[in-house]
Write a structure and sequence with these properties.
alpha+beta; eight-stranded mixed β-sheet; globular
Length: 262
Amino acid sequence: MARVTSHPNGVPSWTDLATPDPAAAQQFYGELFGWSFETSPTNQPGADYIMAAKDGATAAGMMQLTPEMAESGMPPVWSTYVTVESADATEAKVAPAGGTVLQPAMDVMEAGRMVIMADPAGAVICAWEPRASIGAEVVNEHGAFTWCELVTPDPAAVAQFYADVFGWSAMDAPMPGVEYTLFTVEGGSENGIAGAMKPPMEGMPAFWGVYFNVDDAEATVKRAKELGASVMMEASPTPGVGTLAAMADPQGAMFSIMTPEA
């Protein structure tokens, strides 16, 4: 298994889950993706952080969705983190670019420093300044983070925000039946580092979704159903991309899977 030792500036590098039932989530994702888990105490009582690993390499994180978070309107959710050189410098770019800082730059013990922000359309995304933790140590293989995608009413209207904050460039990359925007960044993959599209139905709020790589999308959907997931989109071949599916875990957090085209 190839290990990742660093992530370029401006590249999405981590995802974690806020869930009302971390124990149930560990059982679900452990069965689905083959993850093992280790709980790390934080400096906040009752807010332990759970690291998910594939063969000893960090793959994702989990934490408790507290009643206070739920009361504020936060649902069970997978969040996207983008590597930056400086969390504080990134925070300073958010408001001038038309976004909102939801959580100012803060230290996460020795692991790193982070900022939580919303783009002008309200989609929430995080910035991660790595210290002891680079983010994901394994990507783009079964059970690992592989892609993130912005669902927003007008991708062109928010593209400048991501250019100003993360240095991203946006380009049209049409797919069958879908107007698709591809984000790229200097130092990132030439095939893009994230995507954006309009929501499949009107009225959906803007959000960032995450994809996990799987060896067999159809088999993974079947297993997810057995484990209590709700499937929003069955495994569907997408020419030039692979086979995709979208679902919600038993606690309601949405995520997608992808088996890349051979």
